[in-house]
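Task card 7
Instruction: Convert sequence to structure tokens.
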Amino acid sequence: MASGDQRASRPAAGAGAGLRVGIVRATWNPEIVDRLAAGVERGLHELAAIRTAEVTVPGCFEIPFAAQVLARSGQVDAIVVIGAVIRGETTHYELVSEGAAQGVMAVQLETGVPVGFGLVTVENSEQAVTRSEGAGGHNVGEDAAYVAVSMALLARDFPAG
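Output:
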């Protein structure tokens, strides 16, 4: 996991003006997801992007389908997905985290709508809290908002022909 100066640079303040961004959030692990959502809101506000839709799904495995629905709607220029997968005692963790990641990637490539990946996939609750800090701290949701806007700007600058 990149940290500090190893992270990608943020777009300039206001760079996302006029961009429509949808959010897909899992309801599993709500305390962490609420913290990630606050980060998404901070990031979108800083970049002046417009949150046009928010969809909730039961868990992270359902995120790719909801992202695909939003992407195909024509109502968004980018999507941010947020959720938390915390390792347990079974292989469920691997199945969910890999399935969600592969599904989200497929949505981007199939629809041309960028998706900022704000899922934390961690070993324990303490790591999830560390990756969902408040303003000024490390928040994967905020990072995902920056990524979504950056990639939407790229898509806007190089439209499909």
